[in-house]
Batch of 3 targets.
Target 1
Amino acid sequence: MLGFFVIKFMKKGFLIVLLLVVGCIVAFQFKPVSYVANAIVTLPNYINKEGTTINDRVLVPEGFKRVVYPEGSFQQYLRNYELKPFGSKIINYDDSYYYWQLGHIGILDIPVPKNGLQQCADALIRIRSEYLWDNNRKEEIGFNFTSGHYCSWKKYAEGFRPQINGNKVSFHKTAKPDSSKANFYRYLNLIYTYSGTLSLYHELPKINNVKNLKLGDMLIKGGSPGHIAMICDEIVNESGEKRYLLFQGNTPAQSVHLVKNLEDGSISPWYKLEKDAIIPVSNYTFYDSKFVRFK
């Protein structure tokens, strides 16, 4: 009888160990052990704690200079995006702290809606849409649903609303015209609900040559789940080598944040980007990197 209990206990202990091992593998799928070690070391070399924009927060390595873009361009809009004070934490949509606070060096000054809808792709959709709104290019605001149906802000403002039945979508004028900013954000909530990384991957032009990457392009894994990060600054040296900064939203919906490069602390937070490569970004790893661009 004693032997029976010993064997039973040993089996139970083995099961517990097995579960712990599996749990660790899952936990570190998007955050390898090296991430933890690299995140605890001193701050990256190129950080200006007093900087209040992306441009001011991150310094340029010796031998590089920022790629020049026209005033008023989307690229300059991103580069000069306001940041919260250095040391601000990533906040989830429910006002709780995100569990992983070691992978960023800045929080973009963009609200996180309490409805939980503004996830990774949604955050970049919002930033792009607000740029178009602020620059009187509202007629360009529009995105595909995952079903492939195009939904524009112009039609939404005119009162057209989608009727969705599975993968079938039709639009009908069921609301009064309303071009207000409040209605614009209701439109974005609709886009957040029916669009995402998969729809953006299929909808947007692909960048197949990394030499053609520019500020505003996005590193993307289209899927459910998928992930996406946006290039928010770009530098080049005399040899034509480029480095990039990235920011991302996340799931659950949370603060949009400027990420460290946890794999190469010598250039962090700058990244060297390659196509079809493994690119770790904070708490996520793109295992087959692809790039897209807003039209």
Note: Residues 45-292 form one domain.
Target 2
Amino acid sequence: MRLRFRFRGIPFLATVVLVALGIALGNWQVRRAAEKAAIAQQLAQRGAQPPVVMGDGGGVQEHDRVGTGAHPTKSQDLEYRRVRLTGEFVAGWPIFLDNRPHEGRAGFYLAMPFKIAGADRHVMVLRGWLPRDPREYTRLPRFATPQGRVTIEGVAVASAGHVMQLGTPGALQPGAIVQNLEVEEAARATGLRLEPFFVQQTGPQVAGETLVRDWPVPSTGIDKHRGYAVQWYALAAMAALFFVITGFRSGRKQVE
């Protein structure tokens, strides 16, 4: 039996639109995956660099020393860099970030300002995770704070992470339980000159500490973008294949 293809204008235009859309969106996802791969490479490179010193801790070359002047450090210059802070915690300003589970347990991230030695500036340090009391929702967990001058290490991050905001947040005050925290908000409430980033504290616990410092690894989502690209390309291929198959079927019916 002779095959005959029936060309129809409207289905053809619809197919062209779907194929063009699928290819365009697939290409966009491929570009996004490439951008995320470049970011992941940059993060790996930054993590391998020597820690940046903030304060007069010494022992690091001068070009790696920041935060000792009157001007704040740009967050993008330090994001995901290891940092070493010398100074002391502002123990009177603990802030608890709610809805931060760890290994299936409810809990908080403890945030606290840290005064940089030799500078009139502070850094908001995420000291670690603390469990919530399952029997009393509003009861704050106990924790210990090192007294006096200390040197700590951590990783600079632009954000403390965001969760769904439940209700309207109240005024920020010492010991507050909040869903989310921004550096600008903390600076207004505390009256302190804060650097425009957070530091996730790492390293071993000191005597009396019960904080868990198992920070989540940032996800770039490269595989997700690649998967979406495959789906969009598949849509374009299926649209073209459907047009061809239905065209031959319509042509066969005309012959019959």
Note: Residues 57-72 have pLDDT under 50 and may be disordered.
Target 3
Amino acid sequence: MKERKTQKKTGIGVLLLLLFAAAVMLSACGGTSEERSVAADEDAVASVTVFASSGDGERVFGLVNLGHAFLMLTNEGEEPLDICGFSLGGGESATVSTWSLTKSFGIWFNVESAFVQNRVKYTDRVSVTCPVSAERLSGLGEYLKEHNTWTPLSNCSAFTLGLYNELAGEDNRIEISGILTPKKLKAEISRFRESVSVQEIVTQGEIGYLDKDGVFVGGFIME
């Protein structure tokens, strides 16, 4: 009888140690549920909205859907913004992310808004909007030209988080350890008190991509 009790206590002790080790590992990986608030910027001239969809609402048997991540840029000023040849007027918005489409493996504008309108995509999307200063916005064009590519490792999630962190600034920065996925990014976006579920996406301008020289090519039609 004593031997059985000893074995039982030993088993419980091992289980507690394993649970403690798992908690430490999660902490080391940056996992946390602490709420955040968007830091304001009175000098903002634009805003960036980061979206992530895990694809849970669009599962099809036999097909893999890992979700999607993308940004929406909004010109909060009155003067047009030129983004590598793409003109964004005052008060206008455009979505941007990377895609492995036949025409171009790289940066595309307004694909997501077309999909939302025509194909009812990203139905589980979560987003948060942060201000963008003129200083951070000034480097947008060069950043896009340097990151105009898509590969399995340098995919939509990597591009979206990288550009978001460039534009949103240190106080609104999102850090994710380990393998980056839309699902992980969605969880981090949800930590913001200002996060929104299924935010409406209204954009202006053509659907198009950046060519190998980093120049916008419009007139693309999503079928």
Note: The chain has two domains: 1-31, 44-216.
